[in-house]
Specification:
Layout lengths: L2 H14 L5 H8 L3 H13 L3 E4 L11 E4 L4 H8 L3 H7 L4 H9 L1 H18 L5 E7 L15 E9 L2 E9 L6 H12 L9 E6 L2 H11 L11 E6 H11 L22 H10 L14 H4 L10 H11 L2 H12 L5 H8 L3 H13 L3 E4 L8 E4 L1 H10 L4 H7 L21 H20 L3 E7 H4 L1 E3 L4 E3 L3 E7 L2 E10 L5 H16 L12 E6 L2 H11 L7 E5 L6 E2 L6
Parallel strand pairs: 5-6, 6-7, 14-15, 15-16
Antiparallel strand pairs: 1-2, 3-4, 4-5, 8-9, 10-13, 11-12, 13-14, 16-17
Helix pairs in contact: 1-3, 2-3, 2-7, 4-11, 6-13, 7-10, 8-9, 13-17, 14-16, 15-16, 21-22
């Protein structure tokens, strides 16, 4: 392969897998990292590529290269395609880049996994025909990839051409988003017969959720594509080829699945043309993306640019804190320190950084000496896209709450009607986290009321607890549902709520979210509330309920026995 051919292959890699680093290029092209750096620098010099270094990639972020917007028309001409057609077979264009920056943690993880897969297949004599990221913004009717797929790898060997799509789940996505993906995979447009999908799950809980969603047939009788599941930590350690995969509903390990070739012929032909002849130079007419998105220099950015700017500017720890303020609004600094296990001074610095970038804001709350924190519109978009979810869906489900301006025209925000109730739920969950930590355990999961809502029996019934969670201690995991009672709810309403829980436990609907039956924990703000809850709870059967006085410091069962 000549020098020009290697440069063309490097350009093909940058265009096909935006935001690759030198290590990825080295693995994909079977060259040294020093040679990969030289090729990328030459593409930068010629105007074909540029780079960003998002802080979300770690403390020492590498340069991540992408095809410059100005080079798109030149690339389309070289590939023999119109610019619009090129955007269907390659993830190129400004909006595509901004969307991928908003998901940069997953994008870099997928690029790394694909590069390692190509390197692992090479010694086996398997030829890699194509390795390309799936575009985010192509029209639905023109998509050749299943929904939520992030990359496509096609190989050819003695068995003929085969392919696999790679999807990367995020822990912060809602189960509603996962259900929508599952429905799309069962549809004709979502995934054609013979499609193979390797789904990488964030952790064990997400893997179990996907198993429940993908096991068996859908209600319409259609089966999902050939999907295998693995944990992200396993894939990052061993690679896609050697990770422990398993099919939904099976405990046995299985190899990485392969299906029929799916990429359009035009895309493969365009890729081949990139490795032929000299590339030439492309003129630079605009500032690099990293400078455009530097919010200390450019203030008037569009929505997509503002979200991408947050993805570049924020560290992983700051993004983690953004999730806490989005999912659980009105937390104060001390409570956040308990939940994140970070010193208060560190939490204060990170909150200040998020506020400086416009991702969160604070407000004075009644009865508290510290301000409570909440997410902003920009912060919501950044959080939602990073977790592969939709901002509107998160708001509709109540999973993320963004306050609106007060109706009195004062310029402040409007506080929710049930603010005192929400503050009480926050205090209870923080107290649980502190108790668990003192006993050598931890609060592993905290779902807010939107995340914890459960529909069952064909969505005819549902429960909506104030929170749900999992405590991890010496005896293993203890899942629970939380109801916080301030004594303002009528006894009839309370009785209807307990009857809903009775149906929930009788139907075994908890199996959709937990590995074992959760306890129903009812925290009462006063003695009259405690007595009323105990009286109503005795009227239902099969509900494992614990009643806790908020300020008593002890736990009692419904029958009054100390727990």
């Amino acid at each position: 392969m000549t020098v020009d051919d290697r440069l063309g292959e490097a350009l093909r890699t940058v265009a096909a897998l935006p935001f690759v680093c030198d290590r990825d290029v080295a693995g994909l092209l079977a060259i040294d990292r020093s040679e990969a750096r030289r090729l990328l620098a030459e593409l930068d010099r010629c105007g074909w590529a540029d780079w960003v270094a998002p802080r979300a990639a770690g403390s020492h972020p590498p340069h991540l290269y992408y095809l410059r917007e100005e080079a798109m028309s030149a690339l389309a001409e070289r590939c023999g395609l119109a610019a619009d057609d090129l955007a269907v077979v390659l993830p190129v264009g400004r909006q595509e880049l901004l969307g991928r920056l908003a998901r940069i943690a997953s994008v870099t993880a997928v690029n790394r996994a694909v590069a390692r897969l190509v390197a692992d297949l090479r010694p086996r004599g398997t030829s890699v025909v194509d390795a390309v990221a799936c575009p985010l913004r192509a029209p639905v009717l023109e998509r050749w990839w299943p929904r939520a797929a992030m990359a496509y790898v096609e190989v050819e060997d003695d068995e003929g051409p085969r392919s696999v799509f790679v999807a990367w789940d995020r822990a912060g996505a809602t189960d509603a988003a996962r259900q929508a993906i599952g429905r799309a995979w069962r549809s004709r447009r979502g995934a054609a017969p013979g499609t193979a999908i390797a789904l990488v799950c964030a952790d064990a809980r997400q893997l179990r959720t996907w198993e429940r969603l993908l096991s068996g047939r859908a209600r319409d009788g259609r089966e999902v594509p050939d999907v295998v599941l693995a944990m992200a930590a396993d894939v990052e350690e061993h690679g896609l080829l050697r990770a422990r995969w398993r099919r939904p509903g099976s405990e046995a390990d299985t190899p990485l699945c392969w299906g029929a070739a799916r990429a359009p012929i035009a895309g493969r032909e365009a890729h081949r043309r990139l490795a032929r002849g000299e590339l030439g130079e492309v003129g630079r007419t605009g500032a690099p993306l990293r400078r455009t998105l530097d919010r200390t220099r450019v203030r008037r950015l569009g929505v997509g640019e503002r979200v991408a700017a947050l993805a570049i500017a924020l560290t992983p720890a700051e993004l983690h804190l953004l999730a806490w303020t989005g999912l659980h609004p009105w937390l104060i600094e001390r409570q956040i320190a308990v939940l994140t296990w970070d010193p208060p001074t560190v939490v204060r610095q990170r909150l200040a950084a998020l506020e400086r970038h416009g991702a969160i804001s604070s407000v004075e709350l009644p009865g508290l000496t510290e301000p409570g924190w909440h997410i902003t519109d920009d912060g919501l978009r950044a959080f939602a896209l990073a977790e592969h979810d939709q901002p509107r869906r998160l708001q509709r489900l109540g999973a993320v709450y963004v306050p609106r301006l007060a109706a009195d025209g004062s310029g402040g925000i409007g506080l929710p009607r049930l603010l005192l109730h929400e503050l009480g739920v926050n205090a209870v969950m923080v107290e649980l986290a502190e108790r668990a930590r003192r006993d050598g355990g931890r609060l592993a999961v905290w779902q807010n009321t939107g995340e914890a809502a459960c529909y069952f029996e064909g969505r005819r019934f549902w429960i909506r607890p104030d929170a749900a969670g999992i405590l991890v201690g010496r005896d293993g995991e203890t899942p629970f549902l939380l109801e916080y009672d301030r004594g303002t709810e009528s006894e009839a309403s309370l009785r209807a709520k307990f009857e809903g829980y009775e149906r929930y436990y009788a139907a075994g609907a908890w199996d959709m979210a937990f590995d074992r039956m959760p306890v129903l924990l009812v925290v009462c703000a006063g003695y009259p509330s405690l007595q009323r809850v105990r009286r109503v709870a005795r009227e239902v059967a099969g509900v494992p309920v614990l009643v806790v006085p908020e300020s008593g410091g002890w736990w009692t069962r419904v029958d009054g026995a100390t727990a």
